[in-house]
Amino acid sequence: MEPETGESLSLLVDGIDTEVMSWVLREFRGWLGEEEGEVWVVLDRAGWHVSPRVEVPEGVRLVFLPPYSPELQAVEGRWLVLQGDRELLRRHTLFHWWPGAKGSA
Fold first, then answer.
1. What is the DSSP string of the chain?
2. Cβ atoms 71, 80 nearer than 8 A
């Protein structure tokens, strides 16, 4: 997401590996455009992020989170909150159409 404008880029992939990661970084860089200058991409240490086979486009800098730092990852940090509040989690995920939910067909 672009913090100043709120614009965002979404890419749908069917699986992930170093080749796909390289493609995602190229698409991201192209979306931003050259006038953006250097951009930082903050990543965890998944194998396809840290592999020397990942092709990082010019102007993109990969910044890695420390190992075992879920509090620094927005999704995992949010998960920690949801784990502690099962009712909140239920309200946001137990949809009427979900298999096994009350009232589902």
1. --TTT--------SS--HHHHHHHHHHHHHHH-GGG--EEEEE---HHHH-TT--PPTTEEEEEPPSS-GGGSHHHHHHHHHHH-HHHHHHHH--TTSTTSTT--
2. yes
pLDDT tens digits for 29-38?
Answer: 999 888 888 9
* 12-46 confidence digits (pLDDT tens): 888 999 999 999 999 999 998 888 889 899 888 88
Strands 60-64 and 39-43: parallel
